[in-house]
């Protein structure tokens, strides 16, 4: 773990032209270009699928017999990102977990505000439960806004009478759309990309007049009782540090088996830099071990 690797990850984010609070019609192709600049390894097999009426990308690793299914939700402040753009990160997780992965193209704000993304997420989860004959081999994961959506999916699925999956993986969760965490200020200089101002713009678009304290919008205000074991991973150099800490505390208070995994000196969704950042590589290994253990249990 070298400071040079961490500095490179920070610099790549600072130098990126992406503005998460900017015009979505400009920012969406920018983010897509950034995330798809490198092709995944040749043994990563992808297929466009539709599950529960929701488009998605299914990912398999050649010559690996699946030991489960990972349902993943990409980030992008509920307004940016795509299933295709998440293939690199999700394929890495699929390889390490020895699972088939499905990354969802849920509807985005502002065109499709709350609760459209949750409706899509529950529909695709329901389809996977039917496909698998139960939830025992299914795990749910997400990064940033996608981690919020993962928790909201668990809550909404439970309310709809669906069984819970084996586990949840939450990377740098954006769990408070009231945008009030202390780290928005205390980590503002350390975070190379996210800003409170940008988050507030996207929060308003996503909520679209709904109360941002709605538990399905901001899971830190939810009763998380009954959720499966959760792993929350976050870097100490991100303004969403408090979102992760408070979400883990909420889960612990509600008797959920939760592990909070804070990596010092790294930025938002640092796992995406696993190719050169040792902290990202080891965090993904820990995540994969957690998910496999829960499915095995």
Characterize the structure shown.
The protein has 297 residues and is of the alpha/beta class. Helices cover 39% and strands 16% of the residues. It contains nine helices and eight strands. It has helices at residues 3-15, 24-35, 87-97, 116-132, 145-159, 183-186, 196-207, 241-253, 278-296; strands spanning 44-51, 54-61, 69-73, 100-104, 138-143, 167-171, 230-235, 258-263. Strands 1-2-4-3-5-6-7-8 form an eight-stranded mixed sheet, with helices on both faces. The chain is globular.
Offer a quick outline of the entry.
This protein has 297 residues and is of the alpha/beta class. The protein has helices at residues 3-15, 24-35, 87-97, 116-132, 145-159, 183-186, 196-207, 241-253, 278-296, and strands at 44-51, 54-61, 69-73, 100-104, 138-143, 167-171, 230-235, 258-263.
